[in-house]
Amino acid sequence: MEKTLKILFNIFRVLLGLVLIFSGFSKGVDPLGTAYKFNEYFASVGLPEMDNMSLIFSFLMNSAEFLIGVALVTGIFFNLTAWTALLFYGFFTVLTFLLAVFNPVTDCGCFGDALKISNWATFYKNVVFIVLISFVFIRRKKFIFYSHLWVEWATLIITILVIFSISVYSYRHLPIVDFIPYSTGSNISEKMKIPAGAPIDEYETILTYKNLKSGKTEDFTMNNYPWQDSLNWKWAGTKSVLKKKGYTPPIHDFSISTPEGNNITEPILSDTSYTFLFIAYNINKADPTGLSEAERIKAYCEMTNNCKFYAVTASASNDFMKIKNLYGISYNFNSGDETALKTAIRSNPGLILLKNGTVLGKWHYNDMKEIAFRNGNFFSECITKLRKSGEWTLSIAIIFGLWFVLSLIWAVSLRIKNKEQGTRNKE
């Protein structure tokens, strides 16, 4: 019996640890996306003044998840780890229950953009996990970590450095692994389509009538509303209520309009030539260097006629006119949805290269100077392919490198432990 419990203990702690590692990593490579999710939470509870803390919370939470996951898998500082994991899952079980009941946001963002699940599914998942971590917590004192204290500290420090480095790099450039629908190689038009036969949203018409005797209002459906009883009831309003959610395409809110209000989304996405989208979702918060660098790209497009240039923002016209005058910008801004622009690229401003609706390249404003134009030839596609390959290679190398170092430390520690045990046995 004890052997079975020990096996279950190890299975549960490793499973929980791997889930936390995945969750922490998927959000850690996109710290700005996690910060946006915090902003949604703050807005839903009426605390928009907390937005300035969102990025800090993002770094802390993503790193904490990843660290707890590694600690559960490796067994370092296990008593503290078990306590932390229990409190962590306990807190988020309560939080996800409230999210499921009140539904202030449609997606909790637990796994960033890598995996989206409903609020109720997230809550049920956490209920299962709180049971598993409770079992691990109860048996925590029976777990023996056969290693030296320096191994635990080394594992802890290396893990923090790895996840923090990943997050900082992804924030200062772009996510090293892009889980969003606008990732390099994606065709925006295709991801906006609803497949044939896909379920659609189902709505029910609700009619509100006022009782002329009591003065109270009551809701009715199309099957039972008192349309013939005009002596007792008076129509007060009609609304449509979503009864069943249908298929939502990965990209459903991407739209670009000119300052005059003309929608130019389709011409941009169907253009077979190169098209640069320069996106600054909030012009007032956009990096001035990036705004100035876009002038060079616009000038190149006008000079060679090899590409088109569109600047897009969600800011009001008076805001971008003020910025234009402040920095002497020559290009005009088109309008787009703020959420869509923030999703398209994790940079303010940022640059996207399109051809026939396909994303060929994406650049953070810190990397826009790397775009090389030589003799009118485009090297962007080559650069993008190399960067895409390099990003995946870098991600895999970081993950395997982390585990290799941890495994090496573990092996050395066990060797020292066994050698010391052998010495004591001889004595």
Main sheet: which strands, in order across? 4-7-6-5-8-9
The oligomeric status of these chains comes to: single chain
Total count of helical runs of at least 4 residues: 12
* Uncertain stretches: none
Order of helices and strands: HHHHHHHEEEEHEHEHEHEEEEH
Class based on secondary structure composition and strand pairing: alpha+beta
Helix content: 40-55%
Give the biggest sheet. 6 strands, mixed
The shape, in one word, is flat
| Radius of gyration, whole Å | 27 Å
Distance linking N and C termini: 35 Å
Give short descriptive properties of this protein:
15% strand, six-stranded mixed β-sheet, three-stranded antiparallel β-sheet, 427 residues, Glutaredoxin, 11 strands, 3 domains, alpha+beta, 12 helices
Explain what you see.
This protein has 427 residues and is an alpha+beta fold. The chain folds into 3 domains: 2-172, no CATH class; 202-244, no CATH class; 256-378, Glutaredoxin, CATH 3.40.30. Helices cover 52% and strands 15% of the residues. The strands form 3 sheets. The protein has a 6-stranded mixed beta sheet with strand order 4-7-6-5-8-9. A 3-stranded antiparallel beta sheet has the order 2-1-3, with no helix packed on it. A two-stranded antiparallel ribbon has the order 10-11. Strand 5, helix 9 (288-304) and strand 6 form a beta-alpha-beta unit. Helix 3 runs antiparallel to helix 6 (149-172) and helix 6 (149-172) packs antiparallel against helix 12. The model has no long low-confidence stretch (mean pLDDT 84).
Provide the fold topology.
Elements: H1 2-28, H2 31-44, H3 54-74, H4 78-102, H5 119-138, H6 149-172, H7 188-191, E1 202-211, E2 217-220, E3 233-244, E4 256-257, H8 265-269, E5 274-279, H9 288-304, E6 307-313, H10 317-327, E7 333-336, H11 338-344, E8 350-355, E9 358-364, E10 373-374, E11 377-378, H12 380-426
Parallel strand pairs: 5-6, 6-7
Antiparallel strand pairs: 1-2, 1-3, 4-7, 5-8, 8-9, 10-11
